[in-house]
């Protein structure tokens, strides 16, 4: 019987030609009849021994519970997928899509979608429902009932895991009606549903053991399909020296550059972690726990199974000396494209030419107009369709020290196309920068006089118009990290209840040749300004490879200090988009060897003793059991943006206070380097080693990063306070006339006197010139 069923199953896997099916059915008919007789035979009682005494009926056996899905469950909300706002489904735009990725080393074994939404109470409910699609496959329809209309409801849907791929799209579409009349208005205000960002997708995933291949790098240590925080443990030798830590920092900054918008953390482990892929740095006589390489013949890079969990991988950088570890690290970040197999020996690595100031790959060029095509990864990101589509979003990073000394604006040359309405209506385009309105345009209809604007391209079919316009963006609207939003609204073209609406779906696009120009701005900034550091790493990221930066660590760094070093360098790579190939790592005892550089001081212990040596030049000094802080009058101050001008605070010091507190405290401190003018120091310090992590937590939280400012940010668990207590210094260059204008504009009385003097000079010059002219006419 089992062989027969197996044969039938095997035959069913083949696709048959139409004329072969009758022959096959004729051949299988006797077997099918036999199968039909089997239940009857099973139903006939078999001969049995004499009946036993009657016993009470036993309870019927409960059906066996379904086996739970294999793997580990992960829940991700719509907000974590990028839809951190209520998703509106309206009229002719009744669908929206969210995206979720599945890592290369995982496979989905079960999935459940929890949809939280609210819908209109004015619908015809038998005709209204939500349609859910996964990668263009309809997976569920959710009826809308009258009992729950106008309330927030939750529905759970089991999704077929076979539909999931590397990158997945979950689409929710509203199909709704408010009347049975044939003149139903698709723009009617009753046709609405709001999807909450708390909606979530729970994926049960099973791990896949990947081959030991360097060709997969950066996977599985970084996977672009995974939008969660990048957490990669580092296994370092005991008592790792600064060169070994620098090699690990280069790899951490490389991962930070790949992380892009994701948060990151690089903890330091003494042994192989069982639940994560990790990176190990190995020397012959200082190998991390669980790693044993018998013979190291030079710098090498290899991938091997994690001894604590064979399904996880270790990226092992090995060398006979710390210098060879640096070569291996440089090979990983620069030569991974040429690597294959489980192991690669490194002969040499050339770092190339030194970087120039302000040439970070993640920053837009500021010496020329930059085209939108350079700011997006795909031109499709500049196109939308529908009456009320989501905004076209263009991200833009620029150096923090751009300075408009004459309050100039940022010129934006924009070209856009749209499906033109037949008549004037409320179709508009709004241009926002960082969610602040800059300009709004009414979209004009296509007329005979504008026929030359008709565009015949595959993107926009039908009557379309193209428009060019120049916008001056106020400088104070722009920061280090920016997003330009272009919001199109194509209004309904219906003129009456039963008038027909446009048959074609409205489409719009911003031309990739649109540009924005920062070339007219100078590089000049007032420091210290911790907001620059927290948002873009300035002034350290001025050189993208950190060639003029040194990280100062304690002489005997703890795992927390090492984690802070790697995480800070990861943020540097994230801010610049480039590994920190020329950064220097120095112990506190050797700080004099890097005194010509900008310094990042990390940790407590001997690093804190360096801060104590600088003493009262710091706005805050944290020692064991004691805190010393500068006291100044704190006036109400609107923190101006970096492009709107330098606002120097004339706040006089009132002294210093020495406090004793038992509670935990951490701080970010910025000040001018005691070793040289126009060199900067940023210190990450705390009342204890563990509290250094509080600073790292703040740098991961965008809401808290926005509170970092001035030259001192005190972190007391979840509370932040930004202050300006120390002296201000300036970096960058201004022409003499700009410096003169700035100096005079800061003193109104002096400006008035200069104006009077200038007026007198002009009057005297005119009086003298007119006198000479009169003398010539009189023959004098």
TrEMBL record:
Region (Disordered): 45-69
Main location class: membrane
Recorded GO CC terms: plasma membrane
Gene Ontology terms: biological process: cellulose biosynthetic process; UDP-alpha-D-glucose metabolic process
Record membrane topology: Single-pass membrane protein
Residue ranges of the TM segments: 749-770
InterPro entries tied to this protein: Cell_synth_B (IPR003920), Cell_synthase_bac (IPR018513)
Classification via Pfam families: BcsB
Annotated localization: Cell inner membrane
Pathways per UniProt: Glycan metabolism; bacterial cellulose biosynthesis
Subunit structure comment from the entry: Tightly associated with the cellulose synthase catalytic subunit.
Function: Binds the cellulose synthase activator, bis-(3'-5') cyclic diguanylic acid (c-di-GMP).
Protein's UniProt name: Cyclic di-GMP-binding protein
């Amino acid at each position: 019987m089992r062989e027969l069923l197996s044969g039938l199953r095997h035959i069913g896997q083949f696709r048959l030609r139409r004329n072969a099916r009758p022959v096959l059915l004729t051949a299988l008919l006797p077997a099918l009849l036999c199968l039909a007789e089997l239940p009857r035979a099973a139903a006939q009682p078999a001969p049995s021994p004499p009946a036993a005494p009657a016993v009470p009926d036993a309870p019927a056996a409960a059906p066996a519970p379904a086996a739970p899905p294999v793997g580990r469950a992960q829940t991700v909300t719509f907000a974590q997928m990028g839809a951190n706002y209520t998703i509106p489904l309206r009229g002719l735009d009744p669908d929206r899509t969210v995206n979720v990725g599945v890592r290369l080393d995982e496979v989905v074994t079960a999935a459940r979608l929890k949809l939280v939404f609210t819908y209109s109470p004015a619908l015809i409910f038998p005709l209204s429902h939500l349609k859910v699609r996964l990668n263009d496959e309809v997976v569920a329809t959710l009826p809308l009932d009258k009992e729950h209309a106008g309330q927030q409801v939750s529905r759970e849907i089991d999704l077929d895991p076979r539909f999931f791929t590397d990158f997945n799209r979950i689409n929710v579409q509203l199909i709704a009606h408010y009347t049975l009349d044939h003149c139903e208005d698709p723009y009617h205000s009753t046709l609405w549903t709001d999807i909450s960002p708390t909606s979530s997708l729970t994926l049960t995933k099973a791990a896949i053991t990947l081959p030991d291949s360097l060709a997969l790098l950066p996977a599985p240590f970084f996977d672009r399909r995974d939008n969660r925080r990048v957490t990669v443990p580092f296994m370092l030798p005991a008592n790792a020296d600064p060169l070994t830590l620098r090699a690990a920092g280069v790899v951490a900054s490389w991962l930070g550059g790949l992380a892009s918008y994701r948060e990151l953390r690089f903890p330091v482990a003494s042994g192989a972690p069982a639940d994560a892929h990790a990176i190990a740095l190995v020397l012959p006589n200082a190998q991390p726990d669980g790693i044993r390489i018998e013979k190291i013949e030079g710098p090498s890079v290899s991938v091997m199974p994690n001894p604590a969990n064979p399904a996880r991988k270790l990226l092992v950088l090995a060398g006979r000396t710390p210098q060879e570890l640096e070569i291996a690290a440089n090979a990983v970040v620069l030569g991974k494209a040429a690597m294959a197999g489980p192991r690669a020996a490194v002969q040499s690595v050339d770092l190339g030419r030194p970087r120039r100031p302000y040439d970070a790959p993640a920053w837009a060029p500021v010496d020329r107009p930059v085209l939108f095509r350079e700011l997006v990864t795909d031109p499709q990101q500049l196109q939308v369709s529908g009456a009320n589509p989501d905004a076209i979003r263009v991200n833009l990073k620029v150096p923090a020290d751009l300075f408009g000394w004459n309050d100039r604006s940022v010129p934006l040359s924009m070209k856009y196309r749209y499906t033109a309405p037949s008549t004037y209506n409320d179709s508009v385009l709004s241009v926002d920068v960082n969610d602040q309105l800059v300009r709004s345009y009414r979209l004009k209809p296509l007329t005979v006089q504008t026929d030359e604007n008709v565009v015949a391209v595959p993107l926009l079919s039908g009557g379309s118009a193209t428009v060019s316009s120049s916008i001056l963006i106020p400088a104070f609207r722009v920061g280090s990290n920016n997003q330009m939003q272009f919001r199109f609204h194509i209004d309904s073209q219906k003129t009456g209840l039963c008038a027909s609406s446009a048959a074609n779906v409205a489409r719009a696009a911003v031309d990739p040749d649109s540009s924005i120009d920062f070339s007219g701005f100078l590089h000049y900034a007032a420091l210290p300004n911790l907001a620059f550091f927290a948002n873009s790493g300035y002034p350290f990221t001025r050189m993208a490879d950190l060639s003029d930066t040194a990280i100062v660590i304690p002489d005997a760094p703890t795992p927390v200090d090492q984690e802070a070093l790697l995480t800070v360098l990861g943020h540097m790579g994230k801010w610049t988009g480039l590994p920190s190939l020329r950064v220097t790592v120095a112990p506190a005892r050797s700080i004099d060897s890097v005194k010509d550089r900008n310094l990042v001081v990390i940790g407590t212990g001997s690093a804190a003793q360096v801060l104590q040596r600088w003493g009262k030049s710091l706005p805050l000094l944290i020692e064991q059991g004691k805190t010393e802080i500068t006291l100044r009058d704190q006036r109400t101050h609107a923190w101006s943006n970096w492009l709107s001008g330098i606002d120097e605070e004339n706040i006089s010091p009132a002294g210093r206070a020495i406090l004793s507190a038992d509670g935990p405290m951490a701080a970010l401190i910025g000040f001018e380097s005691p070793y040289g003018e126009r060199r900067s120091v940023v210190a990450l310090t705390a009342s204890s080693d563990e509290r250094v992590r509080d600073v790292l937590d703040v740098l991961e939280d965008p809401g808290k990063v926005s509170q970092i400012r001035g030259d001192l940010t005190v972190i007391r668990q979840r509370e932040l306070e930004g202050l300006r207590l120390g002296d201000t210094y300036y970096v960058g260059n201004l022409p003499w006339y700009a410096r003169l204008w700035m100096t005079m504009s800061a003193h109104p009385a002096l400006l008035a006197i200069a104006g009077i003097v200038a007026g007198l000079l002009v009057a005297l010059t005119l009086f003298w010139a007119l006198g000479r002219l009169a003398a010539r006419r009189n023959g004098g």
